[in-house]
Amino acid sequence: MFVKLSVSPDAIETTRNVLSAKHSEFPFDRKYFHGSQWANIEEPYRNYIASIFRLAGHAEAEAATNVVIFFLRTSAGVDLSNRRLQSAVTSDNIQLSLSAANALYPRTVGPQLQGFGFDVRERSNTTTVVVKLHRYLEVLDWLLSDMSVDDLKTIIEYNVLDFNAPFLSTLFVKAQSDFYDKVIKGLKEPPKCGRAAAEANLLVLKLEAAFKTRLDSAEWLDDATRANAKDKLSHLTHLVGGPNNPKTYPTLTFDPKAYITNLNKVSAFDTTFNLALIDTAVDKHLWNKLALALNGYYQPSKNRIVIPAAYLQPPFFDAKADPSANYGAIGFIIGHEITHGTDNRGRRYDGNGKKKPWTETTAKLFSENTECFVEQYGSMDVKSELTGDLLGKLDCNLALRETLADNGGLNTAYRAYPILHKPKVRTVDLVQLMIGRRFDVIIRVLATLEKGPRIPPASLSVTTKMSVESDQNRLLHLRLGCFAS
């Protein structure tokens, strides 16, 4: 409940899977729990917690709400800073035997291991667990030790209700949507799931080829670093759309009148499936993202990009559209994710996902060459959409990964279309026209993303100050402004 177990590539031996333990994610960004952000969301959040307690028949909903909020605000106050996580070269992780993990974290990691059937007795097995952000878990374990059994039950009850609210009655669904979708995400209506129905792998290959030409033309790279970067690109795995062999559940039986029970069966099946991967070879083609999720990403430990099927529909991709539109839309997005492989975080990993930082000299040149991005974006004013008041400047040291990826994606898409697509009518005017149309598409795509569930402009009334300091993804309107200007 307080810790999530997962199976993922070992940070050192990246071709092997290991068991990992990390604290469960907060319901939303932890910075909401402090300062002005908390003042903006406290009342609607209290109303939401109390409402789902009342819907579940809790006799003392207000008192239970106070317990939950005290725990979340206290635990959020001791988490690691985003800046520290961005700049860390060595991870804040430790590898322990199961018995040692149980002894060190008797209220967090230990119960979770035992709950999944692991034998935590000393010398009982050779399985180990990588405890991530272990210093935070030490504090969390201490915090739990100081709570009463009744308070612990209340927190667990809230977690169960909050997790399952989308699958319960209409009143539960509405209560959760009113808070998470409207208050936190700034949406006027609940989000609608997209459908996937196209192929874009050929486009990915062309974008990779265009990115390779960028590496060849980067004069500041030394030969060894350039060779390593090209080798890494050649080993890049790209997952587009969805899994070729979707996971099925042939051994499960479902009751049409017991939806939550059905979900729990699926969850237990998935957990057993994942735990069976411990100490097996890493499968880079194993999906851990739903096809309908509008959230592509680059994963350094597996050196792969993932573009779910939700992107394979207008305005991002349309098989019937002019090719230039696809290069300007999903081509830009794919190029963005490819660029993450060589940004200020991705460059620390090689083609197999192992930590292999660039040389000190090349890293210094990288910093010098990216300083212009820090200066350009850092000069931008962020103003309240409600009052027009100046809230501050963008901290581009934190936003650097996204600004580099934006510009890299734009550059890659720009190179890929005229060089690799080879349009049938080879006139300068036509190519320039299509390039111009393509960049108009990029602006529209960024505007679409800004309106979507991930970066809605309406949410700035609650989140902009936090975003100025820490969350570059929520400031897409500034990144869009750079392209439009």
From TrEMBL:
Residue span, Peptidase M13 C-terminal domain: 295-425
Family annotation (CDD domains): M13
Biological processes annotated in GO: protein processing
This protein's GO CC annotations: plasma membrane
Keywords: Hydrolase, Metal-binding, Metalloprotease, Protease, Zinc
A Pfam family that the UniProt record links to this protein: Peptidase_M13_N
Cofactor (UniProt): Zn(2+)
InterPro entries given in the database record: MetalloPept_cat_dom_sf, Peptidase_M13, Peptidase_M13_C, Peptidase_M13_dom_2, Peptidase_M13_N
Any GO molecular function: metal ion binding
Keyword Secreted: no
Family membership: Belongs to the peptidase M13 family.
Protein name: Peptidase M13 C-terminal domain-containing protein
Species, as recorded: Aphanomyces astaci
Lineage, highest ranks first: Eukaryota, Sar, Stramenopiles, Oomycota, Saprolegniomycetes
